[in-house]
């Protein structure tokens, strides 16, 4: 039979990358051990909007196939008693970021009109004014329009270097040359058949070839917010598009580098870092962030430091007569926010088999739903009749661990 137990960590493979539930302004020793080794820190903290965000998450095969039904869940709160406490938290995070970076490293801070002014001053103090590289304007069209003033349609992203020998290679993020950019110019084809736009000034002809790359400036209007039905969506309301993170990370990281995000939310930075072959550290206070991030990561070499629930919910399983296959029948869940009609494995988003030792779950195999594979595998082979321990994550992102105890 299975009994619910508390585990403090889950380890995948060698467990080198880190996801950790905690305060990004007060990093624990495990993370501080990497001080001076991180190539890029990106911070996307609360903007001091005063809002409490909600989050939607599909459940069951139907939910993952069609985007509904969904659970409507409470998310994180972006409320601070006053500006001082907000600045104190951010000051802790910016200083920690500076400490964690290697000399070639860079730092991005993502904000909006509310606190960008104050934070620019604070970053100047921590990094030094001479280390400021860019204020990137990420402009978008989504959201309502104001009639009382010009609509606020951009975020501000500051870029700072740790030292004057920082790494940055803009040629890694070429843009397609938009034809509109030169539509006042003459269009021609040269002797090699290459098309270009040209303009004459001061007796000289300037040619802009269509197949020559152009590189982004500091105003980015070609990356939109995620659409409602975008498969990248996790239900986290303030989730940033992976394209945005790609443009920030590609010029500054090489495979094998370390990337960190101390307000990592749904794990966008981690997902992009992983795809670029980097190691990562993700920290967030929200206890659900780990399950949400894990759902989009391969996480083959990862330690997740986030305690599991101890609420007595039961996991139901059975084995076939030869005891060489374990079937997961479901989680005994009742009450809000769980809809009554959910049954069997409907409310399970992912499950894992492994072993628990000293409050650590060593994961051996993970089964999970995705928009691509909405059905959940519900059985696993059992070696020599030896029952594994279990980790089950429900649709609300709550993780529960179960240890096998011989009846
Ligand atoms: C704007 S969201 C980040 C979204 C993220 N970039 C994404 O793409 O999903 C801000 C995050 O900061 C987290 N947060 C707030 N205070 C924090 C703190 N002191 N330490 C770490 N994370 C914090 C919130 O829980 C929230 O997930």
**C-alpha end-to-end distance:** 6 Å
Structural class: alpha/beta
User: Which strand-content bin applies to the residues?
Assistant: 25-35%
- The total of beta strands comes to 23
Written overview of the protein:
With 407 residues, the protein is of the alpha/beta class. The chain has three domains: 17-174 and 215-300, Rossmann fold, CATH 3.40.50.150; 180-209, no CATH class; 314-404, no CATH class. Helix content is 15%, strand content 35%. The strands form four sheets. Strands 1-23-22-19-20-2-16-3-15-14-4-7-9-8-13 form a 15-stranded mixed β-sheet, with helices on both faces. The chain has a three-stranded antiparallel β-sheet with strand order 10-11-12, with no helix packed on it. The protein has a three-stranded antiparallel β-sheet with strand order 17-18-21, with no helix packed on it. Helix 5 packs across helix 6 (268-275). It is globular. The mean pLDDT is 93. Bound molecules: S-adenosylmethionine. The site of S-adenosylmethionine has 22 residues, from strand 15. Residues 23-25, 44-46, 76, 89, 236, 238-240, 262-263, 265-266, 268, 283-286, 289 line the site of S-adenosylmethionine (SAM).
